[in-house]
Amino acid sequence: MHAILYHKYGLPDVLNYSQNAKKPKPDRGEVLVKIEAAALNPVDCEMRKGMLSILRSSKFPKIPGSDFAGRIVEAGAGVTRFKEGDEVYGMSKTRIGGAYAEYIKISPQEIGLKPKNITMEEAASIPLAALTSLQAMRDLAHLQSGQSVIINGASGGVGVYAIQLAKAMGAETTAVCSFRNAELVKGLGADHIIDYTQTDMLKLDQKFDMFYDVYGNKSLAKTRQLLNHGGTYVSTIPWPANFQAQFLSMFSSVKGKVVLVKSRTSDLDELRQLIESGQLKPVIDKVYPLAEGRAAQEYLETRRARGKVVLRVKS
Ligand SMILES: NC(=O)c1ccc[n+]([C@@H]2O[C@H](COP(=O)([O-])OP(=O)(O)OC[C@H]3O[C@@H](n4cnc5c(N)ncnc54)[C@H](OP(=O)(O)O)[C@@H]3O)[C@@H](O)[C@H]2O)c1
């Protein structure tokens, strides 16, 4: 099958396009999906560099990527929820990957039916980034209608869905991005915009119920004074310092949390309903053919993407 492979950890030049990659075979309880589109996430690049290598199989070649959309072509024994022919979208475990390819084998618990009103490329752009924001805002910050959230890194892959989900939850949303992305975030529903190149958000004379540090350069210690009593800081960066802050804030009036995204059918179904009702729209910056997976990762690593970067897998 066609796939992007790497045979060792390293810079983007370890990524190569192959037309002879081994097609996966689903085990009992798994499905085989013929992928039509995949999406990139910064964690794909971290895995390529060797992140969590001691927790991963030592076998090479590896296929990067977690986000995909496609059609089920084989349902292994014991699969009841999905059937051959179903159009699905989903996210594989980030340490396993496998999405920059023509086929992926996956647990049915990590996929959902694809929203009907969007393309395969658009569907692939949703899972990891939107699930992260859904789980951060709904499960960690318990964001409620009428509350306020400030999103640092609002114009990237995770941020563009965070704005829309916060809006759907009825929260007042402040988006932090550079000036060039102000129109984008406004169009997604941000109530207020802060250009971080002009304004130091840490000096704002205002408080929020949630500080969502998507970009990852504002710690709980730096942002505590921006949070209301009972407010929550959530970081997307699983660094030891952020887990330490989470532990130390357990008995404080302001909580620190770290989001670790998980793929679940029930959450993918919730996102599908938001998409089909028009409350959540895919935001795609660039689409590359699968064969250009290396260039796509190089672009993502500039940290200038506006929304998501996608791979077209179906030729
Ligand atoms: N823990 C988890 O489960 C989890 C899940 C998903 C993602 N993450 C992590 O979350 C982070 C963000 O992911 P992503 O997909 O959104 O990344 P991304 O798409 O690469 O983010 C790009 C965006 O970052 C913005 N940016 C660059 N410098 C900035 C700065 N100094 N301040 C604020 N914004 C800045 C850029 O906007 P401008 O051009 O306007 O500056 C650009 O739109 C990554 O580190 C990723 O690994 C973690």
- For CATH, the homologous superfamily of the largest domain is named as Medium-chain alcohol dehydrogenases, catalytic domain
Strands, count: 15
The ligands found in this model are: NADP nicotinamide-adenine-dinucleotide phosphate
Count every helix, treating DSSP H or I runs of 4 or more residues as helices: 9
CATH topology of the largest domain: Quinone Oxidoreductase, Chain A, domain 1
The value of Rg in angstroms is: 19 Å
Known CATH architecture of the largest domain: Alpha-Beta Complex
Query: Largest sheet, if any?
Result: 7 strands, mixed
Number of domains: 2
The N- and C-terminal alpha carbons lie at a distance of 12 Å
Helicity level: 10-25%
Low-confidence stretches: none
Give an overview of the whole structure.
The longest helix is centred in the middle third of the chain and has 14 residues, at 127-140. 25% of the residues lie in helices and 26% in strands. Helix 3 (127-140) packs across helix 4. It contains nine helices and 15 strands. By secondary structure, it is α/β, with parallel strands linked by helices. Strands 3, 4, 5, 6, 7, 14 and 15 form a seven-stranded mixed β-sheet that branches. Strand 11, helix 6 (220-223) and strand 12 form a beta-alpha-beta unit. NADP nicotinamide-adenine-dinucleotide phosphate binds at residues 41-43, 128-129, 132, 152-153, 155-159, 176-178, 181, 196, 214-217, 236-238, 259-261, 300, 303-306. NADP nicotinamide-adenine-dinucleotide phosphate (NAP) binds next to helix 1, helix 3, helix 4 and strand 9.
